[in-house]
Predict the 3D structure of the following.
Amino acid sequence: MAIVGERWQRVKRQPQQLVLSVVAGFGLLMLLYGSHSRSAWLGFAVAVGVYVLLSVSRRLQLWLVCLGVVGVLVFGLGVSVNRNNSFVQNVILHDNPEIGPEQTSNSDHLEALRGGIADIVDRPVTGCAPGCAGPASFYDPDGAKLAENYYLQVGQEVGVIGLGLFAAIVGVVAVRLYRQRLGMLSRVMLASLVGLSIANLLLHVWADDTLAYVWWGVLGLVLLARKQQSEESQAQNQI
């Protein structure tokens, strides 16, 4: 009877959870659209794709990957064919030759990437110290250094060794989350990690204090909860 009652409570909660999920998803899409950030949209799409792949069987994963590849090709073809369309130029390409300036978002990205790479080449081992690059560098009397790429920012600040350590930390976290992917929260954290890692290619994502504190804090809780469950399971098996 207890099992039946528990299942009935889960069924009763499902409509409420569905409504909350729809409301949260709609709000998220509104924020994404308002940001006009292509990297945020790309990270979101990748995160959703990763979560779906982690949630289905291996056989279905292959079909979804093929469908995703076809979708990317169709999207790229559609952008190419409609590249003169006002919506495509302004929202997707961020480059409208009729009303846009000579210096566009795309050209700024390329220039920032070149500058970041040049700084790393100039000081590959020690870097220029934490805070000398990224958003914090606006307060640097020597001038701001924005690579518009968080990985380059890390390389600028602490050199290639520090960048390697940062990549290793992210890799270890990703592996641990993948090993416990049967848990929904672990799948969410892994998918969001992949999405944020993609967005970091064009944004200083982890430089946002609120996002960084919340995400890494939740990660600690998820890993701790999993560890406690594992210890409890081992203790019961010993008994």
About this structure: Helices lie at 2-35, 38-55, 58-81, 86-92, 105-122, 150-179, 184-199, 209-238.
